[in-house]
Amino acid sequence: HVYLDSLYYLIDIDLSTAILDYKGKVEGDLAVEIRITDHVGKPFQGDHETVEPFSGKKAQLHITVKSARGLPAHMGGFRVDFKFYDNPSVFKGNPTEAAGVNPTFDTNQTVDVTLDESMRDYLLSDALTFQVWGSETNSHFGEEGGRSNKKALQEEKHKLQVKEQRLQELESALTKGVGSASRAASVAPPMMFEEEEEAGDD
């Protein structure tokens, strides 16, 4: 997430933000740059500290996804998507062709906006969410890696079969034990109960 409040104060954003997976684990860093300009792409004129003097006017946001660093080595074909404000469309980047955990994107997107009250509130309180996508690849393992993965899968399958067989044996033994206990209880004389009743009368 990249918070946009700096743009409200006419300050460009140029930073790196952590890339988190669905468990919240850091999987790398993404470098992005976001600039705000007037409707023709030029800096706002005048000595102003916020966008308030330009209320109701057209403006542009220039969003650049520069690069990423430290991405998972088992993935490739990375691309970066993001969704801006209430635009129903998702801006999708092009997948990288070069392999590596430090891809360069240099993708640019210009978004036309109107600096009305809702947009000013959006800049002050909201964030732009970038999503980094990639696909699994075993190319860095080579042929040996492929054989190792296949062997590991076979071993896991064998372990699972052994566990299932052991579970069936335990269930069978438990069933037999319950049956024996039931038969023993049915022939036991009630002597103990009679003795307890007599002792209770004293």
In short:
The chain is an alpha+beta fold and 202 residues long.
**Total number of helical segments?**
4
Strand content: 25-35%
Largest sheet: 4 strands, antiparallel
Rg over C-alpha atoms, rounded to the nearest angstrom: 33 Å
- Mean pLDDT comes to 81
Shape: elongated
Query: What are the secondary-structure elements, in order, as H or E?
Result: EHEEEEEEHEHH
Which strand order do you get reading across the main beta sheet?
1-8-5-6
Coarse structural class:
alpha+beta
Distance between the termini: 81 Å
Helix content: 25-40%
In terms of topology, how is this protein built?
Elements: E1 2-3, H1 5-8, E2 13-20, E3 26-38, E4 58-69, E5 75-83, E6 91-92, E7 104-114, H2 117-125, E8 127-136, H3 142-187, H4 191-200
Antiparallel strand pairs: 1-8, 2-3, 3-4, 4-7, 5-6, 5-8
